[in-house]
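[User]
Um, tokens okay?
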Amino acid sequence: QFAAVELLLVAYSGASSDVETEYLLILGAGLDGEIVSLSLYNRLMAGVEYLNKYPDAKVIVSGGQGPNEAITEAEAMRRFLVSRGIDEGRILTEDRSTSTMENFRFSKKVIEEDAGKPVSEITFITNSFHILRSKILAARNGFLAHAISCETPDRVIVQMYIREYFALLKSLIFDR
């Protein structure tokens, strides 16, 4: 069972085709104080590339404040994007989430408040190991979601794929 799930995680670790959507969601990852982790850095750089390619897209930075984090992940991501030339007017923040399910649930509210109508199609960015579970949870929140996969740092890749096995099982059972 473990090997089969790991094969699925690897099989779904790639990106969807390049699709322009009105909203891009960057999923949070850890901070060290106020400094983005390497995983989050990779997500943000993929976000900058997407936002430069699609200048009409808005971005939702999604992530609350965890232990050893001086600010919310959303605030750290907002600062990062602004420092890379992304106009603050394009950035929406969701700063309450503490899980991937909450990232999608709370971001959906932020998106629909901004749009003034239901929005179902989005693009999201996360690391390769996290794509399969994120697609499932996006669908459970009513999204047709296109994924952009970014590199997982070599020093944590094995650890993250093992962790994701358990996270996927938990999400399949409990994240409704």
Remarks:
- The two ends are 23 Å apart (CA to CA).
- The chain has a mean pLDDT of 94.
- Residues 33 and 49 are 25 Å apart (CA to CA).
- The first strand starts at residue 23 and ends at 27.
